[in-house]
Amino acid sequence: MTQGGTEQGTEQVLVLGTGPVAQSTATAFVDLGFDAWVGTLTNQLPDDLRPVLTVVCENSDFDLDELAELQEATGTQLVPSLDACRITRDREGVRRTAAEELGLPTMAYEFARTPDELARCAEAVGFPCVVKPPVSSGGKGQTVVHAPADLAQAWRSAREVNPEGAVAVERYVDFDYEVTIITARSIDPATGQLATWFCEPIGTRHEAGRLVEAWQPAPLSEAAMDNARSIAARITGKIGAQGVYSVELFVAGDDVYFSDVNPRPSLDGMITRATQRVDQFDLHARAVAGLPIDVTLVTPGATRFVPAAAIDRESMARVLAVEETGVQVLPDMALVRSTGDTVDEARERAGRAVAEL
Question: Of 128, 156, 250, 346, which is least packed with CB atoms within 10 Å of its CB?
Fold first, then answer.
């Protein structure tokens, strides 16, 4: 477990997670004056750790019973709440809440717990279909299945990412865009009431199920934008917690379909570090703390995600020579971010920079 490093006596925040999202979230809380700790519940917590907030940043790093015990022992406020964690723990909980409780438009779907069930579910939704793990990020473990012969490999791919829970089977539709709406819920200083803010939509592109590119803003029609924000408002309102949500949607013309929601910053939202006045991590910390929100877009931008990139100094120099381009090296990938006067210009620059690696 690592400590954020602020003066003793300040309010403590425990950020549950081990990856870059958790680390960046902790830094955002430190910047607001909190004493932030990063780790998991399997770590030995310091005896004097009494967090006023416990922020869950990764689905794989918590157990609901352990979270309940921590809340009872310390009086900490969980973000998201236990109920929100239950809803968003896996795709089945999210999808049933969205489609069956809220009536949000979704692709046809089924859930399978065995290979035999997978075959029946795929037949029910029809081919082509998409097989997804119960929990994943960045599209890991997802497979587009065109025929029954492909189901066995799709099952293995999903189970390699997450061996427990129900595998999702979703009807594949030829949509125009996949978009993510970063949605913030905090206290509106003008009214003192909980309110919702929407960042400009983030377009995403996947290859073989893996996230490879994101750009902001994504060009949506006025009707599609209204539908997207309505869906984002309804699902985040149902979950109810303050903070940032990553709401994933499919867009086909003016029609918008709900896909998934995560009550935390996401890999898709990494683009906001280049495009927004306040990025997704600072938005999350502000929203959780009930502070004012600013979702202003300051420039169009694009990010390319390069897996397992080991970048030598010469390659780094070539990448950084591309106009308005920066690099962030993570443990399992590199993020190449570019900005420009237009989204097309930013995407072209990011693509040109990746070609230099």
Answer: 156
**99, 258, 112: which is closest to 173 by C-alpha?**
258
Q: Measured between alpha carbons, how far apart are the two ends of the chain, in Å? A: 34
Collapsing DSSP to helix, strand or coil, 221 comes out as coil
Spatial distance between the Cα atoms of 235 and 185, rounded to a whole number of angstroms: 12
CATH numeric code, 177-355: 3.30.470.20
Alpha carbon distance 221, 225 (integer Å): 6
- Written out in words, the top-level CATH class of the domain with range 108-171 is alpha beta
Q: What is the pLDDT of residues 240-262, one digit of tens each?
A: 889 999 999 999 999 999 999 99
As a whole number of angstroms, the distance between CA 239 and CA 196 comes to 13
Instruction: Give the residue from 209, 174, 194 showing the smallest Cα distance to 241.
Output: 194
* Distance of alpha carbon 30 from the chain centroid: 21
CA distances from 179 to 38, 85, 216, 260 (A): 30, 23, 9, 11
* Domain residue spans of the chain: 12-79, 108-171, 177-355
Confirm if 204 and 213 have CB atoms less than 8 A apart.
Answer: yes
What b-and-e string marks burial along 188-205, b requiring 16 or more CB atoms within 10 Å of the CB?
A: eeeeeeeebbbbbbbbbb
How far, in Å, CA of 87 to CA of 67, rounded? Answer: 15
Q: What are the φ and ψ backbone dihedral angles of 353, each rounded to 5 degrees?
A: -65, -40
Helix (H, G, I), strand (E, B) or coil at 28: helix
pLDDT beneath 70, residues of the chain: 1-9, 44-45, 59-62, 137-138, 309
Same fold, 108-171 and 177-355: no
CB of 247 closer than 8 Å to CB of 232: yes
Beta strands at 77-79 and 53-56: parallel, antiparallel or unpaired = parallel
Buried b (16+ CB within 10 A) or exposed e, 123-161: eebeeebbbbbbbbbbbbbbbebeeeebbeebbebbbeb
Task: Please return the burial class of 207, using the count of CB atoms within 10 Å of its CB with bins 0-12, 13-18 and 19+.
Answer: exposed
